[in-house]
Write a structure and sequence with these properties.
Elements (H helix, E strand, L loop, with lengths): L23 H14 L7 H14 L4 H8 L4 H8 L15
């Protein structure tokens, strides 16, 4: 708001002071720097995505909501990728015919 007409509403999460999208490598570099300064172990941003999806499922968030949050085309992919992390949210094994 302070930049008035100079602000660009790009719709991106990570922007510069004028709302323009940041280069992805800049975001990654800043993330790694902040994590290191905080004394956290090395972790990739993608690992945070996996962690968030797994925790949502473990908390009982519906599979379709997790799928849409992650932007997956299919809930089958989401289920196959994330439900094996926590046994309590894994689908029951198929019974033999």
């Amino acid at each position: 708001m302070a930049d008035g007409e100079d602000w660009t509403d790009s719709g991106f999460v990570f922007t510069d002071e004028l709302g323009r999208p940041l280069h992805p490598q800049h975001v990654s570099d800043q993330f790694y720097l902040l994590a290191s300064q905080a004394g956290l172990p090395p972790v990739r941003q993608h690992d945070l995505r996996h962690g968030a999806a797994s925790l949502m499922l473990a908390a009982g968030v519906e599979l379709k909501v997790v799928q849409k949050t992650l932007g997956h085309v299919s809930s089958t992919f989401t289920r196959d990728t994330y439900t094996s992390v926590y046994p309590e949210v894994a689908p029951p094994p198929s019974l033999p015919p």
